[in-house]
Automatic annotation (TrEMBL):
CDD domains: alpha_CARP_X_XI_like. GO terms for molecular function: carbonate dehydratase activity; zinc ion binding. One of its GO terms (biological process) is one-carbon metabolic process. Residues 1-20 form the signal peptide. It comes from the Eukaryota. Gene3D superfamilies: Alpha carbonic anhydrase. InterPro entries: Alpha_CARP_X/XI, CA_dom, CA_dom_sf, Carbonic_anhydrase_a-class. This is Alpha-carbonic anhydrase domain-containing protein. It comes from Pieris macdunnoughi. Pfam families: Carb_anhydrase. Belongs to the alpha-carbonic anhydrase family.
């Protein structure tokens, strides 16, 4: 390990002299990848030392049903901003001086959060790409919407360091017939941001319509999944995926990490490995205790209709409420039939 630290120190000093910023140098592989983020910059030490890190693997048999979780609310305003290839990810950032900001509230949130940016994580193959996993099942991609606590803090830069500062909304991406036409406002611009540093303006994006048609979700307390891994995020993972076509996935997989002169490797496979849960609770508003309902019923069941993966459906229908089996839930909060 000491040899690695020596090599890292020499390389990082040289790179810092050239670029002047670690933000421009971290990657998703090698000695600048996730395992070394906490060593690259002292301010990112939580990436290596934190115990509430994200992403995580969701274990369905350990979910806790919480009947007090509310619906998640998004303002209906459209937003404008810039889609940018940063060299590490594809990121959309909203205009700072926009007249109509989108607020996120409800769900597990105690405050209103102002939408700020979208991160696109995806794989170069269909069997990888998402950061969060469901029972070790990985999706081809994951779109993450970030917002900051506007009631307590002034902006994302301040909020990401503070308690309950950030909300992360996770949308799993599946390949199939697109059901969300508004998403094409972004996907049609993929070929405009082929190389690092390239950007393209996005106008009048209806953020609320990008979400899947569900109010069923999972939630836990974690961190941002990019440096510096600040443990200030409340995560909301929706139960249904959103769909993009094979052509759209092909287009995003053509994006490159480098400039047009030195394109380097493809931008994909930009997912941080899952992190230990460390006894954190993952709650859900999905009531697994509903049994005896016909298959056509609109029962909120994360396993039915292959929302995530079909192999769990029998297990879900026969499982008793997880919350009612856990001592940490009192009788007042434990839902019974």
């Amino acid at each position: 390990m000491s040899q690695w630290l020596l090599i890292l120190t020499i390389i990082f000093i040289n790179v810092k002299d050239i670029s002047g910023s670690w933000e421009e140098w971290w990657t998703y592989d090698g000695i600048s990848g996730p395992g070394f983020w906490g060593l690259i910059n002292p301010q990112w030490s939580m990436c290596n030392k934190g115990r509430r890190q994200s992403p995580i693997n969701i274990e369905p048999d350990k979910l806790l049903f919480d009947p007090w979780l509310r619906d998640v609310q998004f303002d209906k305003h459209k937003v404008s901003g810039v889609l940018q290839n940063t060299g590490q990810s594809l990121v959309f950032r909203v205009e700072k001086d926009s007249k109509h900001q989108v607020n996120i509230s409800g769900g597990p949130l105690s405050y209103r959060y102002q939408f700020e940016e979208i991160y696109f994580h995806y794989g170069l193959e269909d069997n990888r790409g998402s950061e969060h996993q469901i029972d070790h099942h990985t999706f081809p991609g994951e779109i993450q919407l970030y917002g900051f606590n506007k009631e307590l803090y002034h902006n994302m830069s301040e909020a990401q360091h503070k308690s309950q500062g950030v909300v992360g909304i996770s949308l799993m991406v599946q390949i199939g017939e697109p059901t969300n036409k508004e998403l094409r406002i972004i996907t049609s611009a993929f070929n405009k941001v082929m190389f690092r540093g390239s950007s393209y303006p996005i106008r009048n994006l209806p953020l609320s319509t990008l979400l899947p048609n569900t109010q069923q979700y999972l939630t836990y307390e974690g961190s941002t999944t990019h440096p510096g891994c600040w443990e200030t995020a409340v995560w909301i993972i929706f139960n249904k995926p959103i769909y993009i076509s094979k052509q759209e996935m092909y287009a995003i997989r053509r994006l490159m990490q480098g400039s047009q002169l030195t394109p380097k490797a493809p931008l994909g496979n930009n997912a941080r490995p899952v992190q230990p849960l460390h006894h954190r609770t993952v709650r859900t508003n999905i009531n697994f205790n509903k049994q005896g309902l016909p298959a056509s019923s609109n029962c909120p069941d994360m396993y039915r209709n292959m929302h995530y993966t079909a192999r769990y459906s029998r297990k879900a229908r026969t499982k008793k409420s997880v919350a009612c089996k856990r001592k940490m839930f009192s009788k007042k909060t434990c839902h019974k039939k």
